[in-house]
Design brief:
Shape: globular
Number of helices: 6
Mean pLDDT: 92
Low-confidence stretches: none
CATH topology of the largest domain: Pnp Oxidase, Chain A
Largest sheet: 9 strands, antiparallel
Structural class: alpha+beta
CATH architecture of the largest domain: Roll
Order of helices and strands: HHEEEEHEEHHHEEE
Strand content: 25-35%
Distance between the termini: 35 Å
CATH superfamily of the largest domain: Electron Transport, Fmn-binding Protein, Chain A
Helix content: 25-40%
Radius of gyration: 20 Å
Length: about 210
């Protein structure tokens, strides 16, 4: 018989609550408020999110950093030849998940992904450190490599190629905009009677809010 490990559960959730009056009618506005509170609360990488995509054979998840949020939705940047980007090319449906355990909060997003306009990707790329820009040229993201030495050698070659020159954005690297169609905000509560408010988007851009049972 295999080894067994019992996972200790959370004692209880008592930090806060989420009422309809507090939530309002715009989930993106509430998300930004929660993100601000996570940043002010000293949470490490409060913009970290799990991105889940539908691949040709399976569903895949990974942690990515949110770089922008506005009325359109959520933005992250990636190599367009990476596995996640190729998944989204085949099927633009995507799910995002933010979890801030210190605040006992979670946000779930479902939507469709599209590439950002090139001008926006150019503007963001120009703000990245030079070494990161070179890395975007040198890495065939998600592809296999013999060893780390081969990666470092490739980085060195690209560094030499751009020596004394600006590093432009490669066409295979840029932003992904996730336009949400559903957002759920979860606040842990005592006795597992958690607050769950879900918003679904209509074609005219308005949101319908509903409370879900925990």
């Amino acid at each position: 018989m295999g080894e067994e490990r019992i996972i200790k559960g959370h004692d209880d959730y008592k930090r806060s609550s989420l009422s309809e009056a507090e939530a309002g009618s715009d989930p993106l506005h509430l998300f930004m408020k929660w993100l601000d509170e996570a940043e002010q609360g000293g949470i490490a990488d409060p913009n970290a999110m799990v991105v889940s995509t539908v691949g040709s054979m399976s569903i895949s998840s990974r942690v990515v950093l949110l770089r922008q949020v506005d009325e359109r939705g959520f933005v992250f940047y990636t190599n367009y030849n990476s596995r996640k980007a190729m998944d989204l090319e085949r099927d633009p449906r995507v799910a995002l998940n933010f979890f801030w355990p210190r605040l006992e909060r979670q946000v779930r997003v479902e939507g469709k992904a599209e590439h950002l306009p090139a001008a926006e990707s150019d503007a963001y790329f120009a703000t990245r450190p030079r070494e990161s820009r070179i890395g975007a040229w040198s890495s065939d993201q998600s592809r296999s490599v013999a060893d780390r030495g081969a990666m470092e050698e490739r980085f060195l070659r690209w560094s030499e190629r751009f020596e004394g020159a600006d590093v432009p954005r490669p066409e295979h690297w840029g932003g992904v905009l996730v336009r949400p169609v559903r957002i759920e905000l979860w606040q842990g509560r005592a006795n597992r009677l958690h607050d769950r408010l879900a918003y679904e988007r209509f074609g005219d851009g308005s949101w319908q809010r509903m409370r879900l049972q925990p």
